[in-house]
């Protein structure tokens, strides 16, 4: 049986490579066994399957084994999904690019806001790079990694291409929120503290901020309250405002307190 690699090379299916990946994914995880996963996924392999599809089968097979009695498969599935994510984004599972490389590439692709480089010098970015802990990606359980992929990591939704992994996301959120802190030494300390709290799940942020602040949309507001006046122009303008805020990922709240009650006169009782 043959498989097709990501670079379109065709090679013979090697079960030993699957063993190696699964042994890595299950290492030190109680109640998770390589053999059980292999039995689960074996019927899904076929001649000509791609290496990408093999990895997806391993992820889904491990996720399907998450039960009340075997909850630790959520860690196996998370390990495999993180491995897959890194391969998709950077083509590697361990040699992560520098923070500066990711920022430059994503600004070039209009994924990150170009103002980031207006607020931070290359030397500052290199110092912030040393703060990042990529191993924290593996502290997430399967549902957590999947939620980041579905909702928060910046991507081209027309193609599904993802441009960052979790630790870059956390760092760029902190850098963007604290960009205008005047004292650069204090700013670096604040970024470090916030990054550590975000990446270890001590604090959380609203969805619009998580997925919007580092992008060209510059979405900082989360829940937006819109007052609706008691006249047609205000009602229609409020509807337009809802459209714009929703398009920029903001949550919406409408204040109808000024609208007259049911049965009140409109245009002299028409």
Mean pLDDT score: 92
Total strand segments: 7
Put simply, the count of helices is 12
> How many structural domains?
3
Q: Rough shape? A: globular
Biggest pleated-sheet summary: 3 strands, mixed
Cα gyration radius (Å): 24 Å
Low-confidence stretches: none
> What proportion of the residues form beta strands (DSSP E)?
5-15%
Helix proportion: 40-55%
Distance between the termini: 78 Å
Give the strand order, joined by hyphens, for the main sheet.
Answer: 2-1-3
- Which sequence of SSEs, written as H and E, runs from N to C? EEHHEHHHHHHEEHHHEHE
Structural class: mainly alpha
Protein traits:
270 residues; three-stranded mixed beta sheet; mainly alpha
Give a quick precis of the structure:
This protein is mainly alpha-helical.
Notes on the protein architecture:
- The protein is mainly alpha-helical.
- The chain has 3 domains: 1-95, no CATH class; 96-139 and 150-219, no CATH class; 221-270, no CATH class.
- Helices cover 50% and strands 8% of the residues.
- The protein has 12 helices and 7 strands.
- It has helices at 15-26, 34-41, 51-64, 73-90, 99-108, 116-119, 122-129, 142-152, 166-177, 184-199, 207-212, 232-247, and strands spanning 2-4, 10-12, 49-50, 155-156, 161-162, 223-227, 251-255.
- The chain has a 3-stranded mixed sheet.
- α2 crosses α3 (51-64) and α3 (51-64) packs antiparallel against α4.
- The protein is globular and about 80 Å long.
- The model has no long low-confidence stretch (mean pLDDT 92).
